[in-house]
Amino acid sequence: MLTAPSSRPSGLARLQGRKGEVHLQPACSGPRPKRFRLVGVPRRASAQGEDLAIHGEPEYQQLGPQPQASALEDKLLTHLNRRPVRGWRPDELGKMIHSLFLINCSGDIFLEKHWKSVVSQSVCDYFFEAQEKAADVENVPPVISTPHHYLISIYRDKLFFVSVIQTEVPPLFVIEFLHRVADTFQDYFGECSEAAIKDNVVIVYELLEEMLDNGFPLATESNILKELIKPPTILRSVVNSITGSSNVGDTLPTGQLSNIPWRRAGVKYTNNEAYFDVVEEIDAIIDKSGSTVFAEIQGVIDACIKLSGMPDLSLSFMNPRLLDDVSFHPCIRFKRWESERVLSFIPPDGNFRLISYRVSSQNLVAIPVYVKHSISFKENSSCGRFDITIGPKQNMGKTIEGITVTVHMPKVVLNMNLTPTQGSYTFDPVTKVLTWDVGKITPQKLPSLKGLVNLQSGAPKPEENPSLNIQFKIQQLAISGLKVNRLDMYGEKYKPFKGVKYVTKAGKFQVRT
Amino acid sequence: MQRFLQLPGAVVRPGGRGAGAADQEAASPVLAPEGGPPPWYQALQPEELRWLQAPEEDTIPEASLEGPGPEPGQSQSQPLRHDDLKEMLDTNKDSLKLEAMKRIVAMIARGKNASDLFPAVVKNVACKNIEDPNQLIRASALRVLSSIRVPIIVPIMMLAIKEAASDMSPYVRKTAAHAIPKLYSLDSDQKDQLIEVIEKLLADKTTLVAGSVVMAFEEVCPERIDLIHKNYRKLCNLLIDVEEWGQVVIISMLTRYARTQFLSPTQNESLLEENPEKAFYGSEEDEAKGPGSEEATTAALPARKPYVMDPDHRLLLRNTKPLLQSRSAAVVMAVAQLYFHLAPKAEVGVIAKALVRLLRSHSEVQYVVLQNVATMSIKRRGMFEPYLKSFYIRSTDPTQIKILKLEVLTNLANETNIPTVLREFQTYIRSMDKDFVAATIQAIGRCATNIGRVRDTCLNGLVQLLSNRDELVVAESVVVIKKLLQMQPAQHGEIIKHLAKLTDNIQVPMARASILWLIGEYCEHVPKIAPDVLRKMAKSFTAEEDIVKLQVINLAAKLYLTNSKQTKLLTQYVLSLAKYDQNYDIRDRARFTRQLIVPSEQGGALSRHAKKLFLAPKPAPVLESSFKDRDHFQLGSLSHLLNAKATGYQELPDWPEEAPDPSVRNVEVPEWTKCSNREKRKEKEKPFYSDSEGESGPTESADSDPESESASDSKSSSESGSGESSSESDSEDQEEEKGKSSESEQSEEESGKRKMKKRKKVAEGQGEGSSSDEGSDSSSSSSESERTSDTEEEQVEPDSWRKKTPPSSKSAPVAKEISLLDLEDFTPPSVQPVSPPTIVSTSLATDLEGLTLTDSPLVPSLLSPVSGVGRQELLHRVAGEGLAVDYTFSRQPFSGDPHMVSVHIHFSNSSETPIKGLHVGTPKLPPGISIQEFPEIESLAPGESATAVMGINFCDSTQVANFQLCTQTRQFYVSIQPPVGELMAPVFMSENEFKKEQGKLTGMSEITEKLTLPDTCRSDHIVVQKVTTVANLGRVPCGTSDEYRFAGRTLTSGSLVLLTLDARPTGAAQLTVNSEKMVIGTMLVKDVVQALTQ
């Protein structure tokens, strides 16, 4: 709701979100002020009932920019309003999302946004603590309980989105919302990175303000948001900085009120196009002997629809029964699918995921590649042998390309001296990750990677041989055999250009050795 | 947004303030301890208010602090002027207001306090916008106003919320719902008034509002469950069209609601499948005769019969099920927990597939879902068993995910799949991730305790692990082996010896302690080794960890008691060492032990029992999942995840012993003339249950969207008298029903008038604001409504499978069957004829608020049939010796075979004795015709009735299906001949498709007949109703008003049947049927003409 002042200091700006207000302060060049440790802070079990604080963290030393606010505010509050101030207790402050912190990989809180009252940054220390405990970034528990708050976080594109919750709320609700926020950033700025967020800080705040009202999601559909807040373009940002205008839409949006909540009204294109990408990923676990332990096809159909007006599309398949378990974009008429196995929908404008589906493990899944491997570590010697060869298996006569093999080698491996017959390989001695970029398979000469492994001398030989993670891509093929039959459009007169593309990729494709 | 947030420019930036304000504020003058500014500045610094703050620092006299909230007499120096200004601000002359604003600014510029003018200013800035003709501006103004956390404006806010709650625009009403918790958190004294607003908004019928108001309900008055009663059915029906976030909130609220209002479905599982229909009859009776005498019967029903699922309970389950297909993980989880907590065992299975799907999502989602699956898989293992492999672990999974998957795998392991599971575990044991390996070893231990067959295998495997190079692995194995050995120690002396040797090498304290305990406990199995171990331990005692020391003392004591000759000295030595240990626990233990085992002169009474104390047989530990019993927390909740009650968690109530009065959910019928009044137009569902058609079964009749409502209405009127007993009240209901559903039924005079009025009103109110609604051309609006109609129908469909699963089937097969059926491609689809695409759903239709509805021919199409011809007699009560049998064509796809016509057979026993073993005997069928028999009905008590479903493939002909109806004692020859209209099922088609197909079916395939429509049959809805009663066809949209089109396919061959009726206003009409099947076409024409002209 509240937008940043239009004349803003140029250059990198450090932000302080405060009570729904955006303040821009001169850039703070150094890293984040030293993280305050929680040493000695009494962790009261949970006696929220008794404190009358606006800020939820009364007993913290608030070293941040809001010095000793709470106690004083309390006093004033009670002083000025004769009647008892009720409704300030945390348990009455309402549910859902209270605040959001964005944290980068080096632990800097580079953006914060509060929807209700300000929660001190120091609450993130609990998060940092958990982060330190977890060996791996992925292992930070998504839900952390602190004495007065709950922190629910997601990790996306090297950023942590940490939200502060005060009361019971379904964790998935928050997680889903945070991912939606990240998706929206991605959608607006092309990437969801610290740099992109800092560059578009005003838009970020505007978006957050629209997406959440009083901690409850308000407008989360990309089509509607884009009407409210225009995505940045180079031209517009230049114009804005000259004229001092902002990205807030000048005309009032109508989308929210249209009867199709996911589509904006008045769409116009000169070239009307509808593209569908059928992307299938093979998840598989192949055991040592080469037999398939588990295989499943996970597919999605991503659409890019640029059609004027209110087109009503129906997409039908040659073999819809293949789709075992489907989840839909809200635009799809569930009933039609149930009765006729036809996807009938009025699409949102632009890019979106139409459906995701699963072709169950009941069906036999074709495994397009095989790997011959021989990895061994000699007892009492500081070296081992490594030899893998990749070949095509059930590739439906298509070329398999973009093959990459990634191997997490055991800790004791110091270095690897390998020779690839094709492509190039790298070994990172710090993370112990071997990556072999193979490229295409030519059946005449199968690509292989052979050589020696140097081990730390004296260390016991590794117990387990590493698993091989394989990536590949097959163009113009949906491995499940799914085929789009036709796309029909109703409701509009023009003739759109229609296109379907099929790709098969390796998903979580793992070969145990 | 900016523009309505800002004051006129002149006001905002007086004297160069404004831009610099941010900096100044960062310096936080307001917090200066001596300043004592009113608190509301803390909560609010919207730009336009910042100027008010300037004078505070220096000019507030201390006295002003005493001034109370809203009407402070502060700044006593100039009270008059302030009144003056207030008055000026309150006028409706803009010039005066502007002048007042200017003066206020000037005052502030001079450093005078003007804070008491704040409400007046707010009123002028925000409130003015609240009356803006543009709904978005109104909404945003309310959002701004409600975000100002200042106690003084509470009254203004309250007023604004109340006003907005009855706003014309659903979006504004949504904002009002959002504002409620804000105001509540600002001033909880307003609770009562806010509840009134909530009550009003709960009655709102738009999807836009539903989610937000339930959220407000949950925050303000979750205990007022009574507010939900009247809206329960509506919420269930709206659910699918609510936005995702709202769905989650509503589902979780309804879960709690259902737990307080319905009976547990888990009692008497087996009888369950049969009963829902009865429940319908029950409630029908009840509703028909009013809340008088019959109520007692209904209430007593559950007691008399073992268990009857409340139709409302069923409604909830049915309407949430399609949401398992949502793209939002939160929604899927919400539905899953609802099913877990509310559904009968046999039906919970459907959620498994959707939950497994979520495992492919982001790792945070996986984490949460796996936690819940872990809890569910303990209670309902069978549910996830088919998906065992989906929980296999990849080396790239994060550790926390691995451990959760392991938990699930362990829970799922049983006699049959244990070999596969153990093979997987073997792979995991060699992982590089040691935490994970440790967890795997524990999992193996759990499998071994739970599944006796593999105990030895597991034990051997674990013993092998003892020679593992990794100490952690060995240690964990020791701990687990210890627990396993405790179950059958006698056979495993060798393993204990082996373990004893390990004490030299293993350093992990827990493992050492475990070994020592084992040796001590089973020292008689290793009589030679035990003293030696004690000797070694005595030597290293001082360097051991505390838990090891305690076990050394333990070992010493036990050896002393069994083998005192060899170990007396050692024991004394150990106890002496322990006596001076730094740890008081150890000192205490040593003292205690010494007193017990060493006979002293005081001769403690206990020492005689020392042997019993130390060497008592100890029960083997039970290795339990840490997720056991976690389901007392509502699944999917934060509290469940943390396994601790989170702030604000609301307990999931236990099922009531006796069901509360179900009639509270019946909704009053609004009075006709007041229909246009939004608040009064409450949903009314009653008629569904009192619909007298048994043949359509509970599934659709409970589904109360206006289509089916009006449809069933039309249906029951067409077969009047077929109902049970309540024809009178029935017709009354119909009457009312029409009123309700005919928001768009133009044929009725009254509604027409009303509609006109409403339209006008809407045009006034929303015209300016909602250009999109009006701007969208008619094609788009029709296609939209098409969508909504579809989603409405979704609610009906899935359940038809469930209902038809044979009543006797056990839980697991049913679940399976459902999933199999899921794949089934019903070409002749749907339960209801796929209704014409022009139908507007309740939910979205009300969103439109008459904006886009053209009054043209689309409207009457709201009527679509539920089922065809009424009950027909199969066996008369006299001929059947007390057994009366009727049949109806339910017009639902037959679950086993889509080519079959689904026939509902109703049995009732009017004899004195129970009729046993009702089944179908050898049918004598013409070629091509086949029958799917109904499952045998074991017994039919006197006075009881039952319904069964059978499928008949008539092979697209009207030949008679003859078969025998057998009881244990008698055989009756019966026959069913289908009307031609029942041999088809509706298909969905667009106008273009229809024309195209019609073009292909000309010549021989086209049959035309001219007719004259009687006066009684000229309104759209009657025509449609008559046609759809005769034939199971779906309406196809049509551009011209005089033409009606219907389409269907024959069930067996799937040939298209297209029906066109071209009716002139004069009454002359032409009926055309296009179909490859000429016989069917001819007969259909005959039937339709007959129906129309009668």
From TrEMBL, chain A:
Annotated membrane topology is: Peripheral membrane protein
GO CC annotations, alphabetized:
axon cytoplasm; clathrin adaptor complex; cytoplasmic vesicle; cytoplasmic vesicle membrane; Golgi apparatus; postsynaptic recycling endosome
User: What residue spans carry the region label Disordered?
Assistant: 1-27
Q: Name one GO biological process term.
A: intracellular protein transport
* Localization terms from the record: Golgi apparatus; Cytoplasmic vesicle membrane
Record-annotated MHD domain positions: 271-512
Pfam families (UniProt xref): Adap_comp_sub, Clat_adaptor_s
Which InterPro entries does the protein's record reference?
Answer: Adaptor_comp_med_subunit, AP2_Mu_C_sf, AP_mu_sigma_su, Clathrin_mu, Clathrin_mu_CS, Longin-like_dom_sf, MHD
Keywords of the record, alphabetical order, are:
Cytoplasmic vesicle, Golgi apparatus, Membrane, Protein transport, Transport
> Per the UniProt record, which residue ranges are transmembrane?
none
Gene Ontology MF term list: small GTPase binding
Q: Which residues form the signal peptide?
A: none
Q: What does this protein do?
A: Part of the AP-3 complex, an adaptor-related complex which is not clathrin-associated. The complex is associated with the Golgi region as well as more peripheral structures. It facilitates the budding of vesicles from the Golgi membrane and may be directly involved in trafficking to lysosomes.
Q: Which family does it belong to?
A: Belongs to the adaptor complexes medium subunit family.
Q: What is this protein called?
A: AP-3 complex subunit mu-1
What is the primary gene name for this protein?
A: AP3M1
From TrEMBL, chain B:
SUPFAM superfamilies, sorted: ARM repeat, Clathrin adaptor appendage domain
Q: Give one Pfam family.
A: AP3B1_C_2
What ranges does the record give for the region Disordered, renumbered to this chain? 1-81, 280-303, 677-814
Q: Name one GO cellular component term.
A: Golgi apparatus
Q: Which residues belong to any copy of the AP-3 complex subunit beta C-terminal domain?
A: 813-959
Q: How does it sit in the membrane?
A: Peripheral membrane protein
Keyword list, A-Z? Cytoplasmic vesicle, Golgi apparatus, Membrane, Phosphoprotein, Protein transport, Transport
Q: Which InterPro entries match?
A: AP3_beta, AP3B1/2_C, AP3B_C, AP_beta, ARM-like, ARM-type_fold, Clathrin/coatomer_adapt-like_N, Clathrin_app_Ig-like_sf
| Transmembrane regions listed in the UniProt entry | none
Localization: Cytoplasmic vesicle, Clathrin-coated vesicle membrane; Golgi apparatus
Composition skew (Basic and acidic residues), residue ranges: 677-688
Q: Where is the composition biased (Acidic residues)?
A: 727-736
The biased composition feature labelled Low complexity covers 64-79, 711-726, 769-783
Question: What does the UniProt function comment say about this protein?
Answer: Subunit of non-clathrin- and clathrin-associated adaptor protein complex 3 (AP-3) that plays a role in protein sorting in the late-Golgi/trans-Golgi network (TGN) and/or endosomes. The AP complexes mediate both the recruitment of clathrin to membranes and the recognition of sorting signals within the cytosolic tails of transmembrane cargo molecules. AP-3 appears to be involved in the sorting of a subset of transmembrane proteins targeted to lysosomes and lysosome-related organelles.
Q: What is this protein called?
A: AP-3 complex subunit beta
**What broad taxonomic lineage does this protein's source fall under?**
Eukaryota, Metazoa, Chordata, Craniata, Vertebrata
